[in-house]
Amino acid sequence: MERRIPKRIGGTMKLNFWYEELIRCPSQCYYFFLDRGKLKCIYLRWRYSDPWTVDLITLPESEMSEDWPDINAKEAKWESIDLGYYSDDDLKKLQEKAVKKLVRHRFLNFLKLIK
Question: Residue 26 and residue 24: Cα distance in Å, rounded?
Fold first, then answer.
C-alpha cells in the first residue's frame, strides 16, 4: 500500500501543526514534530469506514532539509500505534490524544531522563 504526503499544502511545512486532507477517500492528517533531533510525523488515516488508524513515522536525516518530507522515503521507519477506537466524527479527540501521548508524553519522559 502506498502512502503519500502532498508536496505542497500552502508552502513550507510547519512543525507542531495538523495538516488535514479530509477528502473521505481516504482522509489523512499529518503532524510533524522533532523528538531528540529526529523529525517525526503522526499520520492519521481514515479509509471509508471506522476506525481511524495511527502511525508514527521517524523520518531519515536526509528528509529534514526538505520543504515537505517524503514519508515514503526508503529509510523512514513506520510504527503502528493503538490509541483506541475513534470513528470518523472523533477526529479532533484523536488528534488531541495523539499529540498528548506521542509528543508531550515522550518529551516529558525525556526531560526526566536528562535531570
Answer: 5
Q: Which three cell numbers stand for residue 86?
A: 475513534
Which amino acid, residue 18?
A: W
Instruction: From 107, 115, 114, select the one nearest 34 (Cα to Cα).
Output: 107
Q: What is the pTM of this model?
A: 0.80
pLDDT in tens, 21-79: 888 778 899 999 888 888 899 999 998 888 999 999 998 887 766 567 778 788 899 99
Neighbours of 33 (CB within 10 A): 18
Order of strands across the sheet that contains 77-81 = 18-21, 27-35, 38-47, 49-58, 77-81
Rounded CA-CA distance 31/43 in Å is: 7
Q: Rounded distance, CA 104 to CA 30, Å?
A: 16
**What are the sequence ranges of the domains in the chain?**
18-114
